[in-house]
Amino acid sequence: MQVTIRDVAKASGVSPSTVSRALTPGGTVSPVTRERVRAAADRLGYQPNQAARGLITGRTGHLGVIVPDLLNPFFADICKGVQARARGLGHTVFVSDAERDEGLELDAIRTLAPQVDGIVLCSPHLSGEELGSLGELTDKPIVLLHRKAPGFGCVTADLVEGITDALTHLHALGHRRIAYVGGPRSSWAARERAAGVEAVAASGLVEIVQVGSVAPHFDGGVTGAADVVLASGASAVLAFDDIVAFGLMSRFAVRGVRVPDEMSVVGCDDIALAGMAAPPLTTVSVPKAHGARAAVDLLFRMLATPAAEGEQPPQRVLPTHLVVRGSTAALERR
Q1: 119 vs 116: CA distance, rounded Å
Q2: Do residues 175 and 320 touch, judged by C-beta distance below 8 A?
Q3: Which distant-in-sequence residues (6+ apart) come within 8 Å of 102 by Cβ?
Q4: Which of the two ends of the chain, N or C, has the fewest CB atoms closer than 10 A to its terminal CB?
Q5: Which phi and psi angles does 252 have, rounded to 5°?
Q6: Would you say 145 and 295 are in contact if contact means Cβ atoms under 8 Å apart?
């Protein structure tokens, strides 16, 4: 026979309503009671009826995550991280790929909102005005991951620090003229990384050659960007992300330019493929699994304790760090 919430209540010595709160993320019970109830549920093999729980709690048992590009391994890692954390909290996850299109982002929010308890909106391309109007679409909590905006719970990475570390590393290797291949102008991350580049350039530590903005794809204008880098006299190049860096390295190989002997290359994100490239890619590591967990935890915090009117929801900034691999070398090797 199917184990019921009453069976769990009897086994753990509490009321059915306490069992419901103990098994609901953010439910108000003591840690000791929560652990006792969960242990009894596990021992009996209890599987909560999400539909019935939804009628009682008003919760769906689902979360939404919207990313701009599932083909990019960075966002695939984000989805896996969100799913892993949500599963541990008893929720399933619906994933939507907005294809770097503001209209599709809005459509995804409209579609997901009635079906989920909250949404993690990752690296949205929506304008500040469009983000500010999301309250007209849904009253479900939305956490921004890798984007800051007033009125939202946000989890971001310290990209300015990461870019500064990358350029300081290249300076320590003797590089003084460095090219920067930027990302899409509509991207918050691209603007943050550009701010880091500009700050280092203003300090006079190195000379920066701004190559312009490219789409964050292997072949998204990278062929032309690589040729500009080679013509600039730069001895090293910093790319918006690892995928762009791979495109640059591919073009350098076609042109007979050896990495890192004749050109040092640094990426950003530290996707799994970065360590598999030839040579392995030096890159700024941006927290993916950690950021995803933090975003889900913040979402559940907002579900349990909604912000008071006029109160700014919590915001977290996670550290980045530079991973030095084989794509950078001292200038003397040229």
Answers
A1: 7
A2: no
A3: 125, 126, 127, 130, 186
A4: N
A5: -60, -40
A6: yes
